[in-house]
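FAQ: What does the model actually see?

It sees only this:
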Amino acid sequence: MDTKAYQNPLFYPPGGILLWIIIFLELITFGMGMLGLAYSGSFEREIFRESSGQLSRVIGTINTLILLSSGYAMAAAVHAFQASNKGRAKRLLVWTASGGLLFVVVKSWEYYEKISLGIGLGENTFFTFYWLLTGFHLIHVFIGLIIIGVVLFKMRSATSSIDTEDLQAVGAFWHMCDLIWLLLFPALYLIW
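And it is asked to produce this:
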């Protein structure tokens, strides 16, 4: 392989080109879901307004702050690792995972409240999009948490190691989760 092409970020972005293709496809998938939400909402404005009003903006805001803080910890972990401060990188990854777990707990509580009120996937078009989009996002958060757990395990193991590219790939995936939530939060909780 040509070393110039390998070092050129256009041909070899942090985390590898395959990861960025996956991220791009995920963003397209969520984007199509959000376009469907907007399109359907244009026909059912009142239902969407009433349904969105049943979501807690406080809970949505808390989850937004949790994910942003977790994303910051991830970025700081990558920088610490690149600076050869592996102890700090591990601690920051634990903070990242803790934020992800807290997001899951808060989102699960919100889901529990909706289910307790009898608001499920088939309640109406708005809630169909709500459950599908936030559920798909939650799956991505779970996947990110598993990946962070594997990286932490490898960092603690004396026989296994990770390199900067591995951590950058984890960071890119985690930031995709952040970005998607930053799009979902206003689309579901604020606009209608």
